Amino acid sequence: MVPMNKKINLAILAAVDAGKTTLSESLLYLTGTIRKAGRVDHKDAFLDNYALERQRGITIFSKMARMETGLLGLTLLDTPGHVDFTAETERTLMVADMALLLVSAPDGVTGHTLELWNLLERYRLPTVIFVNKMDQAGSDAQSVLQDLCQNLDERCIRFDSWAECISQDAPACSPSTGGAAGSKLSATPAPDSGRLEDLYDQVAMCDEDAMEEFLESGRISDERISCLMEERKLFPCFFGSALKMEGIRELIMALGHFAPKTARPEEFGARVYKISRDAKGTRLTWMKITGGELKVRTQITENEKITQIRMYSGEKYTAADTASAGEIVAVTGLAESWCGQVFGSCPPSGEMATQSVLSYELIWPREIDRLQMFGRLKELAEELPEIDPQLGEKDESIHVCVMGEVQTQILQAIVQERYGAAIAFGEGRVVYKETIATSAEGVGHFEPLRHYAEVHLYLEPGEKGSGIRYESTCSTDILARHWQRLILGMLRSHRQIGVLTGSELTDVKVTLVSGRAHLKHTVGGDFRQAGRRALRQGLMKCECTLLEPWYDFELDIPSQMIGRALMDIEAFCGHADAPQIEGEFARLTGYAPVACMRNYQAEVRAYSGGRGALNLKIRGYEPCHNAQEVILEAGYDPSRDLNNPNWSVFCAHGAGYEVPWNEVDQAAHLPLMSQDTGEGMRWNYDSDDAAGGSGGDGGNLPDGWEQGYEEYRRHEATTQELTQIFERTYGKIERRDLGGAKETFFGGGRHGPMGLHKPRKVTQKEPILLVDGYNIIFSWKMLRELADRDMNAARTRLAEILSNYQGYRKIPVILVFDAYRVSGAVEHTEHYHDVCIVYTKEAETADRYIEKAVHRMASEFDITVATSDGAEQVIIWGGGARRMSARELEEEIERTGKEIREEYLSKDTGGRNRPFAKLLEDAMESHPAQ
């Protein structure tokens, strides 16, 4: 680690109308950065340089300004104050070293102030508090301080007296530019040891080490105070008026003394927090250098390099050749960067806490093409990622996420200004997310002609709110480091979606465990394809969970309305704590789904006669209360999503062919983690034929491998049952010795043959069939007609049919009937010959039982579920099972009956009379699949 000079990036935060811009102007003026302090009402503020900001008097985009004092080099990061732009504020906190929280004395700690405080706690930023507007009548410092201690942290300590008590020989904080402003900062009054002792006594109560130092020496050092601030054990508070520049000098002096001294790593690292465009349309990528240094012409990604480094302060900038650790700069030359991207040694960011939970349909002029409009919104989303535009799956719509009414108006103004399009917003809908509940290894293979890549990713559930985290445990002996970085970088840059509804994926840990490249045929794009397919295939094998946003609510209503409110909350599938009754009013607190409660405010006003009040706060994402309904309504088919494929591409005879996701494990070139015996990589063949390198004529493959080894192995894995039938009919099949072969693959730094290896043995899972009984009965005409007369007879007939099928196919069959409406029913199992019949318990449907069975047995069995229930078919996709409709099951039983008939009739040799042949044939014709 390299110690750095005392330079910090200070983010200034405040609720709307707290005086944040005025405070920024005062800081810039008193440090000599500007000659005149601007004002919001005069529309001449130094940092509000966007026309729309000056017009509306609010900050929309974060800005930065540089200033110098005698003790400190300060980069001031101005953030939006309106709640609708909190996402912009949070992105700025990702690159801040310290925070200055502004509180308005007349307003005290507001709800938005609490939200900002929680963000500061999330990012563990040392924080100084400035209480503004103390010049207004009725403002009392002691009452405000008490409010801070009660609502923020009890370790909020008044520090403005510290500057009045420091000794005159302390280093002055005058700016390097001097001038009148400098004279204001350089004056320091005589010390007051009594007041300092009271201050140190309060500070000592925050930490045991500070207490020991105070008891031993009677004082607490600046270094100790700085350490306490860095650990968020102390929050200095200053009081004054930004407009009259009262208390600002003390604030600047404290920042110079107590700002934490940070150490930066020597290895280069950077974090992107903002994308913008200058007046000429040049794309700017704003980043903080977290370690090392960045120079012009550095190739920072595989295909892009830095063309210019800009040091901005307000609207103006100076070009630099090098940016050192700790500095925030804007660079040009990056066309594919995004907010939250990291480079080098910088650790990745987690999921943002500020998220929109509602998206709204966009209404735009129809003379503009839909895709053209969507492209413009995607360009705008580079600067405002939270709007996240999405194309409708079932219609020609575009949906955009917005945080509130003000952001809606700002978006309309920006789109009108930049693109000349007048837009509006329609009805909103809930934004769902998806996660996984079980772990799985996903395999992605991409091998069209003269291309090759295979990637293995291990997916496991992550911590709540962690987003998607990527890491690698793959050895560089298996896969070179630059390939690993390429795979992980590609995954981070792509918006990952789930397989239930196509919603955004979250709270998943993705680990790169293995991979393979080819010496001649692998290019970077191959690993992009293989990595995406591996992730999707892993999701198909996991048990997936649909998430929806929930509100924490606080409902104040007349006491006589408690019963009505509790009934509503129960209907919303929410939870309410015991009511708190105070006089004529009662307060209910709890949580409920956003989908149910988003419009409840109007209903509260109606039934309470305008006397009720409902406060809602985003709780976060929890499992969806009506997941099956939402999944069915979405109608998303992951196997038909061409933008997010879950199948892989293999090569045989010089041509690529697709392999479904549920067959990729058997066709993969590398063993799964659970199958790896530690003997190294398997299955290699001659390098001239690798990845279709022979041009498609089969090359020097051994005799009998006319279709290529991979096609042969896949054929073996998928036709095992047919082989058993053939062997029962014709005897054992003799197979030729396929011999050995070789191939040239490489891992980390290997360039040459890795030797001859035998093909890896694939463990074939035992097949099993699960049947939704009532669904099949009411789908087959013959059984449906029988059920109209006698349901018990229909159940018995279906069991008989499946028993005949099971006896010939030798596949275990589980037939499930639900007792959903049977009062007092308990789950029990019966057997009809070799068919297992399950009757579910009360209030449990057959599809719910089958869903649980699939998730429980998917790792051990190759499961097929027979049902025509659309919602259930979608759910079993995510559980790792195959699906078979009622019609397909009927056809399969017909084929089985035909095979049985042909097998027995084929044994009639020599034309001898078979007295029972006619009887058998009649029996086959009466098979239930009619």
- Second rung of CATH, namely the architecture of the largest domain: 3-Layer(aba) Sandwich
CATH class of the largest domain: Alpha Beta
Shape: globular
Could you state the CATH homologous superfamily of the largest domain? P-loop containing nucleotide triphosphate hydrolases
* Largest β sheet strand count, sense and barrel closure: 7 strands, mixed
Mean pLDDT: 81
Instruction: Give the DSSP E fraction (strand runs of 2 or more residues).
Output: 15-25%
> In what order do the strands lie side by side in the largest sheet?
3-4-2-5-6-8-7
Counted up, domains total 6
How many beta-strand segments?
A: 41
Q: Count of helical segments?
A: 29
CATH fold call of the largest domain: Rossmann fold
Q: How would you describe this protein?
A:
Helix 14 packs across helix 15 (524-541), helix 25 (791-809) crosses helix 28 (886-906) and helix 28 (886-906) packs antiparallel against helix 29 (917-925). The chain folds into six domains: 2-190 and 233-262, 3-Layer(aba) Sandwich (Rossmann fold); 265-344, Translation factors (Elongation Factor Tu (Ef-tu), domain 3, Beta Barrel), CATH 2.40.30.10; 358-431, Alpha-Beta Plaits (2-Layer Sandwich), CATH 3.30.70.870; 436-542 and 646-746, Ribosomal Protein S5, domain 2 (2-Layer Sandwich); 549-619, 2-Layer Sandwich (Alpha-Beta Plaits); 766-899, Rossmann fold (3-Layer(aba) Sandwich), CATH 3.40.50. The protein has 29 helices and 41 strands. The strands form nine sheets. The protein has a seven-stranded mixed β-sheet with strand order 3-4-2-5-6-8-7, sandwiched between helices. Strands 22, 26, 28, 29, 30, 31 and 32 form a seven-stranded mixed β-sheet that branches. The chain is of the alpha/beta class and 930 residues long. Mean pLDDT is 81; it is low at 167-191, 677-719, 735-762, 909-913 and 926-930.
